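INTERNAL AUDIT FORM
Audit reference: QA-55
Scope: verify that the stored structure record matches its stored sequence.
Auditor: D.O.
Record contents follow.
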Amino acid sequence: MRLRRSSPRPRAGGAGRRREQTRGRGRTPPATPELSGAAAAGRRELWDRRRARTECPVRVTNSRSGVRRVHARLWCAFSGVLAAAAVAVRVVAWLVLWEAARLTRSPTTAFAADAGIRATCSEIILRQEVFKDGFHRDLLIKVKFGESIEDLQTCRLLIKQYIPTGLFVDPYELASLREKNITEALMISENFNIEAPDYLSKESEVLIYARQDSQCIDCFQAFLPVHYRYHRPHSKDGETLIVVNNPDLLMYCNQEFPILKCWGQSEVAAPCDLKRKDICQWNNMKYKSVYKNVTLQIPVGLTIHTSLVCSVTLLITILCSTLILVAVFKYGHFSL
């Protein structure tokens, strides 16, 4: 059924169109007095659908406009809550990802900066060597700096050497060497027994104050005599191995140097020198070792020779004691 207007509608100008658009955006549709009741109802329904699509894009199937508007508003409110929750979850996820990336990137950045600083520093090289044969050896430690020693004249070098249970250092020998100005070393271990065998002894510590090497302008060296302890006899192998680990390298300077910032790891309290009892805070330096460790081979007895060794030892002891008694009674002078 087609409806015709009773009179043509006047064409509105610019202001009329703006008023019509403003009126169309309001909450009520524009009045249409020229339409009949059924046409007005149809136009109102079309207007409600258009407004529902504008306010909230939801499809409404209920024919009653009032119920439809209530459902549309409830759905729009629910959709707004869901949208806000989704935005909050997205923001939290981005914050978590950003924090994780920052935590992951920080150690790498710090390591790269530290590596960049240490790339400009020369390495410290340490070398351990053992001289002589038999049960009495000499341990020589050499330290080489990559930069000129003229810049380190105010620095002192201290080597903290760990002596394993298979070796020992004689403190009386160290005192004699200090008097002769051969080496500057000091035992710092307590309850030290030089007569104890390997299986009854403990690891000891020695402080060695290194001296400048006369043949190398940027080198230090330290000297330490070591001795083998007695070991248990073995059933098969006639040798045992002793591992001398690399020492701790301590450095003390009266002023700051780049090398301390490059390779200094921690601070260790130790005597400033042997003549005074003052305590200084030494920097524990990181270095590169030529050898990972020094390994020594020590000959030991075999258990299958126990009876033979005991018998020969007993016979020699009896023979020597008899000769001593004979000499005493023959050449000795006794007075009653």
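Auditor finding: record pair retrieved intact. The longest strand covers residues 136-145.
Action required: none
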